[in-house]
């Protein structure tokens, strides 16, 4: 185990949900970034700026179910707002990055517990 321990109360503050990627474009000012729109079961999709270009094509991402962290503070990345984070498993050398996803189809907005 590495890093600081987090108690359960802090962990439960994370809003983890199933999302479905509805739209993907390559960031116009960054070769390694995508701008993705994610249906998380709300009235409007949320946007994430993610560095998945080396690992997935636009076609592979579009329509894919993913695990999303919703309640991170939004950040600006190369002029775009990232409102959510897609969770991935990534090797130490960053040679591979694999999106986490439910093993069966679940509706957007389903809590991850």
Compact overview of the structure:
Helices cover 7% and strands 36% of the residues. The protein is mainly beta and 113 residues long. A five-stranded antiparallel sheet has the order 3-2-1-4-7. A two-stranded antiparallel ribbon has the order 5-6. Strands 8-9 form a two-stranded antiparallel sheet.
Taking all Cα atoms into account, the compactness measure Rg is 14 Å
Q: What separation lies between the terminal Cα atoms?
A: 21 Å
The level of helicity is: under 10%
Oligomer: single chain
Query: Whole-number average pLDDT?
Result: 95
Q: How does the major sheet shape up?
A: 5 strands, antiparallel
Order of helices and strands: HEEEHEEEEEE
Helix tally equals 2
Strand order, largest beta sheet: 3-2-1-4-7
Number of strands: 9
Strand percentage lies at: 35-45%
Sequence stretches where pLDDT stays below 50 over 5 or more residues:
none
Shape field: globular
Structural class: mainly beta
